[in-house]
Amino acid sequence: MLATYMNAEWIGSFLYSIIRISTPLIFASLGACFTKKAGLMNMALESMMLTAALCGVLCSGASHSIFIGFLGAVISAVMIAGIISYCAFFLKTDLYLTSISINLAAVGGTVFVLFLTCGQKSTSAGVINSLTIPQINIPIIENIPVIGPAISGHNLLTYIAFMAVGVVYFLLNETKTGLRIRSVGENPQAAESVGISVRKIQTISFLISGVFCGFAGAFMSMGYVSWFARDMLAGRGFISMSATNISDASPVLSLLASMMFGTSQAVANALQIASVPSEVVSALPYITTIVLVIVFALIRQRREYTRRLRLAASIDE
Amino acid sequence: MKKNLLAVLMAALVCCGLAACSGNAEQAETSAQTEAAAEEEAAEAEEENAGGESIVFIATQLGDMSFNDNGWQGVQEIGEKYGYETRVVETGMDSSKYETMFLDICDSDVNYVIAQSGNGWGDIVFKYAADYPDKKFVVFDASTEAEVPSDNIICVAYKANEGSYLTGIVCALMSESKMIAAGANRDNPAINDFFTGFITGAKEVEPDIKVSIAYNSVPGDAAVMKEIATSLYNSGVDVMFSVAGAAGLGIFQSAVEQDKLAVGVDSDQYLTYSNSESPELAEVIMTSMVKNIGGSLITVFDEINEGTAEWGTLRVLGIADGGVALADNENYQKLVPEDIRNTISEYEEKVKAGEITVPSYYDYEDDQEFRDLVASVTP
Questions:
Q1: B351 and B253 in one domain?
Q2: Would you put residue B314 in left (φ > 0), alpha (ψ -120 to 50) or beta?
Q3: pLDDT single digits (tens) B87-135
Q4: Which of the listed residues B272, B302, B317 is the one where a domain comes to its end?
Q5: Domain range summary for chain A, segments of one domain joined by +
Q6: Counted domains in chain B
Q7: B70 and B112 fall within a common domain
Q8: In terms of CB atoms within 10 Å, which end of chain B has fewer, N or C?
């Protein structure tokens, strides 16, 4: 059944869809790398992205400028990150409870704002004439069969997502802020003792996380689709969070894990069309999650085991 | 100082949270506005209906520019016509809350409750209606096989298979590649009844037609639906039937990007989108399989007010009763050539006259029979 679809054109568009589906996951999981390195789990990715998606539509619709729409998306996500940071690090509320309540508030809050601005509660399509971020065709490469259709013609933000992996790696490993973030994550007391303000660093990690979620949200409503819809993130924030966790906050592994999730979703979509029972297909992305978690955990355990062996051997000497 | 700020923040959170949970605050506002407008017009009618009876319409979410909006429009018209106080309750998609929500509604001061049958609402109404003998319930979009358990319920069913049969014919005739598709949110009998009619119709006029059917891997997610539609269009499909409610938006946008055609569902989606800020979406919707939800509810209340309504019954509305139809609008006239339109009319007449009986999913012995039908046209 699936075989009839298996031609070069189809494979090209299948690979294309993997990359497109993965884009928001990549952004969000990169954002979560910062907080994870600072020793905190960012559970509010979902609400940051959702708010950004709404603000992207509202700002671009009102201003008729893609840039202002994009800027609005990023700023709104950073504001959410700011609220969470202020509550959790300065007022000492429980970070996870705060994140959960912000997530819940964002689902209803975005619908509420949408209703206030345009009287619709389900989607902004047809009500707000919002803009989309342009797609980029890469010259030369676009003419290569299979690879061309797969990697050319993506949204500008998709290319930024892949480039961002390098930027995140650089920020975390080569800059002073990155070093401080990691040291706070490793041992907050030690960092405090040498004069690093832990809560400042944690706040910074959340704000950076917010910037990346802003990118992801803007991609969702200004690239992936051209509208905002109620609860449109549909759990992508949590998938990204697990991508970061299973890769232990390494930017490159986060990228790979996000792509794995993207692939399983793309496969689910393809199988859906090939009339495989839909119950099986719907479970696929979640099965992939569990398998990935186990595989990564095994690898980590292995590594830890050999490290201890080596340590023991060196003590013996 | 800090404490004050925290208090304000928490208050804001609680407010948003409340809005999230019920969404009722917003609805009260809308219905208040519509009521104010309706009240003047209905002033005379209200004198006749001095009891000030009220109707609650249960919608999963308004603004889908399809199913729910269609029904709510009808209910508002009923309110204006007979002077009922109308109210809408949006329930969201979390079905675990439905049962308590329904009981809350029934315990409130309301005379008529109108609910859709889908998403489990039919079962809930059937389960509790007998406990509220002084309330009346109308369940629309019920299964054509539904057995009405209590005599304070009227069920309305639409022969989706008949409407989809015509959709299948128009799609098959309009397709150049002779590959068509249909997309829906969930794999359930109501949806499969659409597909049964759709495939049968397509096979009727093009015996060698290839039909792909797809269920959304994340029900209700328009972005995923767009992904599925795009890959179907890429595989050679050139006409696609959306049975996906609000997620159908994904199909329409994909059709715009790929320069292909689509068919809407439940209400005339061409009209909805052509009057909106995104008229380009309307251009690809060559017709829609319209369920006359609003109209059928009005008929029910006409009968209630005339005293001729038969409670405890199921009424099944097909093409002949005006329950389902293909939307005939300027885009249909523009995109579909006249000879194809004539063919459609011929088939429509035949179904009306009873010369053609469209098979229904509910008539099948078991699910396998439907799967065999699907397999016979799978590319």
A1: yes
A2: beta
A3: 998 887 777 888 888 999 988 888 999 998 888 888 899 989 888 988 9
A4: B317
A5: 2-316
A6: 2
A7: yes
A8: N
Q: What is the pLDDT of residues B232-281, one digit of tens each?
A: 898 889 999 999 888 888 999 999 988 999 999 988 888 888 877 778 88
For A2-316, CATH number? 1.10.3470
A290 burial level (CB within 10 Å; 0-12, 13-18, 19+): exposed
A281 contacts B227? CB cut-off 8 A: no
Name the token pair of B296: 């059928």
Closest in A108, A115, A125 to B21, CB measured: A108
Tell me whether residue B193 is in a domain: yes
Least Cα distance to A127 among B292, B220, B62 occurs for B62
Least Cα separation, residue A39 to chain B (angstroms): 24
CATH code: domain of residue B311: 3.40.50.2300
Provide, as residue numbers in chain A, all residues whose Cβ is less than 8 Å from the Cβ of B232.
273
First-to-last alpha carbon distance for chain A, in angstroms, is 63
Q: Dihedral of CA A57/A59/A60/A62: which sign?
A: positive
Q: Where are the beta strands (DSSP E) in chain B?
A: 54-59, 85-90, 112-116, 136-142, 153-158, 179-184, 210-215, 239-243, 261-266, 285-291, 313-317, 324-326
Domain containing B153 equals 26-43+51-159+294-317
B163 and B197 in contact (C-beta within 8 Å)? yes
